[in-house]
Amino acid sequence: MWSLYGSCVKLLKAESCRRTASNTVFPFLEAEGTQDFCRLFRYFMVFHRYGFTTMPEVMKDNGNFELYSPDPHVCGMTTLDRAAFRKTISVPVIQVKKEKVSKLLKFLKHRMIQRPGLKRVLDLSDEANKLVLLDPQQISSENSFDESDHSVLQQFEISPHVSKYDLELTYENFKTEEILRSVLPEGQGVTSAFSRVGHIAHMNLRDHQLPYKTLIGQVIIDKNPGVTSVVNKTNIIDSTYRYFQMEVLAGEDNMMTKLMD
Asked: How much is the pTM?
């Protein structure tokens, strides 16, 4: 919220509309007074919510990059090999009585590991207990728990002892940006942004990304339920009829879709 506020303050100083890298015009004009600022802020919020881009250009959480980065040997891959993305990391865990797990999760959900498609509670050979996977960015020992965490653990009579567990991550547990950043050569920009109409995802790939276009398209389909076709614009938009040639990167060659307004 504060980042949006700061952006609006900067936009108040603008004297003309500025075109972004995606050729979208933001009709923000210089505003004066509280009422104009509020209108500007509301407009920015609406645009932010309903904008067409569904994924960020750059990963925001750089602290997780190394821990959750796939094995370096996938760099340069042009044909998607999902099995190559297996990686084992060490994560903190606590042991919890089976009947207390659901109650504990309500209070310690913010301390648990957050990865796509990952089970955060694992079975043990001892059927009376389960392992709860914690966030390695937050928890390293029982001293990492704050006072409220210890209060919850004490309330449910759960030991705060933290041990380590070797967790295998697979392709399904990595995010789109993490996969693409690991595949493209270091120092080259990673674009995972796209516009979506029905089942079609439309991308504008840069020249250095074209050797990886098939892989990029397949990853977009895998990571976005409902997307079955990924296309890339191959030339500039015609100035008269506003059409352009498209290349299917992955998925079905079906450009007919329904759009509900």
From this structure: 0.69
